[in-house]
């Protein structure tokens, strides 16, 4: 069963979906640009078997507030504030694409709050050619001003983001989409190298790994998230 809840963080209402055993290890899911918590529907039932799963709508997305002020740092602060309000100390964290940037910023600035980190097809923070995206027609489920603000940051990232990847202490799994992804895969490999102990697994289905190959994604991620106690074979009576 998935429950829909919300919290107030600094005057911004953040909506999240929660499922899984209440006493299980908390697992936080951060979606890509223009998506929301429902983007994880294909994988949440499996992940929630052994984790208390919190899937957020980041600011400017879905059912959370669209406050008009946007940056990846503000999204990171929102996530941290949400953890504080919910009383979640150390969590496991999965971020896809833009959500992965928010996730590694949190792991850089607050390493004590992230136990294990999964980055799904997340670009390396290096400058790239700047382009102006075209607004889709019709009503949107996200704030277009948010897209413009975030794309500017992704195109011209703060150099400290790259430098501080080495500050991450969480065990880190980088899941790459392979040659079918639009994200440069050599950059994803470098991202993993710069994180101490980071490792890469490639599921060659393109950028939308958890959508296109949910079984392969949950198998790899679930194995990575296992605690030592969970991985230990049960003793015979």
Describe the structure in brief.
The chain is an alpha/beta fold. The protein contains nine helices and eight strands.
Q: Sketch the major β-sheet.
A: 8 strands, mixed
Going across the biggest sheet, name each strand in turn.
1-2-4-3-5-6-7-8
Question: In CATH terms, what is the architecture?
Answer: 3-Layer(aba) Sandwich
Which stretches of 5+ consecutive residues score pLDDT under 50? none
Radius of gyration, CA atoms, in whole angstroms: 17 Å
* Count of runs of 4 or more consecutive helical residues: 9
Average pLDDT: 95
Give the name of the CATH superfamily. Answer: Alpha/Beta hydrolase fold, catalytic domain
Succession of helices and strands: EEEHEHEHEHHEHEHHH
Cα separation of the termini? 33 Å
Q: Supply the helix-strand structural class.
A: alpha/beta
How many structural domains in the coordinates?
A: 1
CATH hierarchy class name: Alpha Beta
Beta-strand percentage?
A: 15-25%
Shape verdict: globular
Helix content: 25-40%
Q: Tell me the CATH topology.
A: Rossmann fold
